[in-house]
């Protein structure tokens, strides 16, 4: 692809018969974003145009924009680096005529995005990108390339919540605050802005938000109820905050609701398993099976529960004290970021426990629901520096390579192999609740 781009630029600049159209383009920055240069120009005839652009001195990195049709054009470019000079050509799709070679300069990044310190960069370790989020004091979503450079960001106007996810329509779906859902595409266009109070939904959103296969929004919630907890030395009408799930369509219509207390009575369990000060169970992530049922990670139980998406019943529990046969070393502790990887295995960041097992693991399990057996497929024991008892995520990039997001006071992004050897690393000035590997988000549309 690099060879093709280089030859394309050389041919365009060498063939005088192609360079015919004259433009007077203006360069601005879309939504005042330093990495969204917008090229505006007029054409004499209604036609479709694209822009070819590349960094100064690097024509092998040429990219192509999406199409703009008509006589008045404003083409927003993506996937650029800050404070960089770019060359570009405007090309007619029908006549293949191109403009003279032009230039623009991207701006410096805003100070309140996130700062990155490159520790171990080998760009051939992976071909994709990494999406992270800084949630406070000012929220920002950031995409980093394999060279450790920021190539895209979206800056919010205030702190945001931790939950965010990458969608199959090249956008970031996230929780702005505990009762508001927003979605932005790579050109900073707002695709969704749902305020739950506008739909009389009292729940507080936390820790997870994603789309299901039907295009509905699935989110973890807090829901407070009153319980008689005098047996635990509390009140007869004690407020208890329990975790749950809601499913909404894109118009904000509530389609399904579930709460842990529908199937779980904290009075039936040892008090060590109850965290009434925060939320019962402390749910922190959700995976959706091929059958459409929900698997919820409960940090305080060190278990995964599969919940029937129709009637809300518990189909099974996985982990210590659960329904599956597992060896002791297969038990995960205080896990985060559960998901199904490319092999169909249930993968997670197994945080561990400060006293019982301080080292975290990249863990992937093969689940046999019929025989109620679970076995480890991937087990990467991480060094202390990459371990953490809270937050974090782990994702398989390809066989033998794993993206690990370690979040403590600050953040560490690494790619490790099966032996926990660090192949690639950058340090962040702010932690990210988790990180997502993106194979190719900058496809023109």
Describe the structure.
It is a single chain. It contains 1 helix and 31 strands. It has one helix at 2-14; strands at 26-29, 37-55, 63-64, 68-76, 85-92, 102-105, 116-120, 129-134, 140-144, 150-155, 164-166, 171-177, 180-185, 190-195, 204-211, 217-227, 238-248, 254-259, 283-288, 294-298, 303-307, 314-319, 336-340, 346-350, 361-368, 373-381, 393-398, 401-407, 411-416, 422-428, 436-438. The chain is globular and about 80 Å long. The relative contact order is 0.10.
Topology:
Blueprint: H1 2-14, E1 26-29, E2 37-55, E3 63-64, E4 68-76, E5 85-92, E6 102-105, E7 116-120, E8 129-134, E9 140-144, E10 150-155, E11 164-166, E12 171-177, E13 180-185, E14 190-195, E15 204-211, E16 217-227, E17 238-248, E18 254-259, E19 283-288, E20 294-298, E21 303-307, E22 314-319, E23 336-340, E24 346-350, E25 361-368, E26 373-381, E27 393-398, E28 401-407, E29 411-416, E30 422-428, E31 436-438
Antiparallel strand pairs: 1-2, 2-3, 2-4, 2-5, 5-6, 7-30, 8-9, 8-31, 9-10, 11-12, 12-13, 13-14, 15-16, 16-17, 17-18, 19-20, 20-21, 21-22, 23-24, 24-25, 25-26, 27-28, 28-29, 29-30
Highest CATH level, the class of the largest domain = Mainly Beta
Name of the CATH architecture of the largest domain: 6 Propeller
Looking at CATH, which topology of the largest domain would you report?
Neuraminidase
Task: Please state roughly what percent of the residues sit in beta strands, choosing from under 5%, 5-15%, 15-25%, 25-35%, 35-45% or over 45%.
Answer: over 45%
Radius of gyration equals: 25 Å
Helix content: under 10%
Count helical runs. 1
Q: Largest sheet at a glance?
A: 6 strands, antiparallel
Instruction: Specify the CATH homologous superfamily of the largest domain.
Output: TolB, C-terminal domain
Number of domains: 2
The overall strand count is: 31
Task: Please state the structural category.
Answer: mainly beta
- Shape type: globular
Mean pLDDT: 91
Q: Regions with pLDDT < 50 over 5+ consecutive residues?
A: 13-17
Termini separation comes to 19 Å
